[in-house]
Amino acid sequence: MHPPTVEDVARAAGVSRQTVSNVLNAPQRVRPETRARVETAIEQLGYRPNRVAQSLRAATSRMIGYRIEPMHPHALGSIHDRFLHALAEAGRAADRHLLLFTADDPQDEVANVQALHRAGAIDGVVLYGIQSGDPRPPGLRQLRIPFAAFGRTGADAEHPWVDIDNAAGTAAAVEHLVTGGHRRIAFVGYPQGAAVGDRRADGWRTALDQHGLLDGSHHLDLRGEDSLATGSRLAEVLLDHPTPPTAVVAATDTLAAGVLRTVRQRHARLAVVGFDDTPTAGALDLSSVRQPIEAVGHAMIRALLGPVPGETPGEPTGQLLAPELIVRASSAPH
């Protein structure tokens, strides 16, 4: 027995083949009573659309390109994996799927996207890890390839983007620590020039300034690569200073875990807050700023595909989402 076809559904519902096609692909064109009759026939016959054939007819692959990145060798946990899963879930809900690929650098990524788009393998692409002056957005704009970016470049009015309010996250951490009685609050972060790291440092600096705590705190701003060893080493520097801090805000959970290791080895009293709320944070009872990654995934798909039926078009090009501070024992008052 052959699987049911569009013609079988059309005969069962007493409509044309085109009407069945409209119900599947443009239901708003079909009167409600006719649509209900066709949907009943589809359900009774167990008809399943041929998505490959639909894609060919509609000149769309229903695939979204995404460059998968290797995990940083020194990181204890990565937000990348959570984002990839959230993006795949959000894409599935919109009847889109991810096509993963690798690239050597941003220029190679643009070249791969161009080849995949030209071959009809993808309809657009989601960019991850955007930095200031990133060459990928202008490159894809020039090629007229649809894309949406997770992060901001500084020239974002020309393309859709979604980002986390990183400065608000570290500012919330400072507010929490100030409320707990801390006045010397250090920051351990990336070297200057990394967009995300700079915004997290800005939040720390702004919050200290609002509380009149910035003067005399410049020696408490330390930077290094995102690794456990770096966090541990910078904690040694902070604790050995003549006026050591009583608390630290770290740009990542990896750096925070390194700070905690030194604190515990030296039996020091130092409150610590990380960023990203990775599984590492939960395991170490580390306070951390949680990114709403699931919401980011859905926002990225909407940004790439445009407004869905029922939504108002013309929404802002970018969307900035607020993170949430998760307080655990590492920064709780003693």
Automatic annotation (TrEMBL):
Q: Which Pfam families match?
A: LacI, Peripla_BP_3
Q: Where is the HTH lacI-type domain?
A: 4-58
Instruction: Specify the species.
Output: Dactylosporangium siamense
Know the name of this protein?
Answer: Alanine racemase
Q: Write one Gene Ontology MF term.
A: DNA-binding transcription factor activity
Q: Which SUPFAM superfamilies match?
A: lambda repressor-like DNA-binding domains (SSF47413), Periplasmic binding protein-like I (SSF53822)
What does the UniProt keyword field contain? DNA-binding, Transcription, Transcription regulation
